[in-house]
Amino acid sequence: MSGFFILLFLQLNFNFGGGKFFSPRVSLASSSIPQVTVKIAQGKSFYIGSTASYQIKDKSKKKLFHHLVKVKFSRHGIILNKSIWGNRIKVEPQKGSFCIVNGRRYRGIIWVVNEGSLLEVINELSVEDYLYGVIKLEISPTWPLSTLSAQAIVARTYVFERIHNGELPITNLAYDQVYGGVEAEDPLCRIAVDLTRGEIITYNGQPIKAFYHACSGGYTTSSRAIWGENYPYLISQKDPFSLNSPYSHWILKLSAGQLEKKFKMGGLNIKNLKSIRVLNKDISGRARTLVIKCKKNKKVFISGSEFRKIIGYDLLRSTFFTIKKSKDKFIFIGKGWGHGVGMSQWGAKVMGEIGYTTDEILEFYYPGTQIKKVY
Asked: Tell me: the pLDDT tens digits for 35-45?
């Protein structure tokens, strides 16, 4: 592991006193598997428990439970079965059992934190256990094992880099990585996680920014083009493996009225929409800047990324599009799904199907990187 040393500074044992979760930096190193904290829910009340007996404790007390209990928000602390506890409680199951939150099972332990206006539920568990609940929600278990293994390494790298930089907790949403606990696990996905145990992608000895997306539409783009941050391994390049997925091509039709409503919700005051034009593109062909023209030739300039955010990520699947207008309709003719940076999941599927190895898939989408086993 030459030069790759993990001094795990990871004290996710959480301070029962004031403040947020402690998010330490982790240097690369050793034998132990790091812990990750994942925000899995927030709201005013939850049912929590375990598949066996479990202990709940706060700053000053602890108690053994055998059944589900309801936790509720209050300004004075967390209400637990009509009794007021502290502002953060730890739910710790018996060894070999799972925590339960609103009917879903989770490995590791659960923290419930009073944030002042609502409760946040945080799942703390090992990185490997976390990955068991991620892979199936990101790609299909029926895909080639080399592709599943590539996804496992990429997902591990993503969370490891966040831990390495002290950026915790992460969310269970697509904004980070979709995570669903034990209910989201799959036997083949667990095999992929186990086969790649401790493996991450590195560049110059450091974990990379392991961005990925559903489908590139035939051409990946660079991190610099999308976010203005230059990483040598996140480049624009032709991606022939992503040309024939279900998301390679798509069409979206929206009326001027529908667009004006979305603009308003996004904070843009645009009335009597006349035209939308792609002003310039990046090397991959994605819209870098658009100009929106409305009444009295008023012009609004907006980045492609912000435009997609306003329209909706699921509606406008990428910024890789051209625009036509037919009467009152604006027609977006697009390619791919997602931001287009890093690994294309559907491209990785095709690579696996035609015989590419896990290492070859990752080398293609993250050129110049190396795979390192860090524990």
From this structure: 999 999 999 99
Structure tokens at 20: 């947020």
Average pLDDT of the chain to the nearest whole number:
92
Question: What CA–CA distance (Å, rounded) separates 33 from 133?
Answer: 16
Which of 233, 231, 206, 210 lies closest to 4, judged by CA?
A: 206
| pTM flag (> 0.85) | yes
pLDDT surpasses 60 at 22: no
Task: Say if residue 93 is preceded by a cis peptide, omega within 30 of 0.
Answer: no
Distance CA 323, CA 276 (A): 7
CA atoms within 13 A on the CB side of 74: 14
Taking the C-alpha atoms of residue 44 and residue 117, their distance in angstroms, rounded to an integer, is 8
Give me the DSSP letters along 271-316.
Answer: -S--EEEEEEE-TTS-EEEEEEE-GGG-EEEEEHHHHHHHH-TTTS
Phi, psi of 279 (to 5 degrees): -80, -45
Cα(217)–Cα(260) distance, integer angstroms: 28
- Mention every residue, 6+ apart, whose C-beta is less than 8 A from residue 148: 135, 139, 141, 188, 189, 191, 192
**Is there a contact between 333 and 321 (Cβ–Cβ < 8 Å)?**
yes
Residues in the chain: 375
- Between helices 345-353 and 358-365, what is the axis angle to 10°? 140
CA distances from 209 to 64, 154, 163, 370 (A): 42, 9, 12, 13
Per the CB < 8 A criterion, the answer to whether 101 and 46 are in contact is yes
